[in-house]
Amino acid sequence: MLTIFKKLLPTPIDFKQILVNGGLLIDVRTKSEFAKGHIKESINIPLDILPEKISKLQKIKKPVITVCKSGNRSSVAKSILKSAGIEAYNAGAWKSLEQKIK
Known about the structure:
Blueprint: H1 2-8, H2 15-20, E1 24-27, H3 31-35, E2 43-44, H4 50-60, E3 64-68, H5 72-83, E4 88-93, H6 94-101
Parallel strand pairs: 1-2, 1-3, 3-4
């Protein structure tokens, strides 16, 4: 019975391993929010300009992890990236992810 429930639950995403393997970490908060604090390895591409960067990200051909303040904007960013054929994951709040990947 327990194995049935395990199959129904999503497999946890190993964000740290994605980054170790060369994945990109994109912080979709505004430039001013990013300047106040961010994960060292992250790249700031605010959500409102993300569509302009899609072709460049497609050429890189690496998985992308998105973060923001709470997880809302990063969820939208993940959807935009996935619809463009980019492997993308939403890690939610940047401060939470920072603790997980240390």
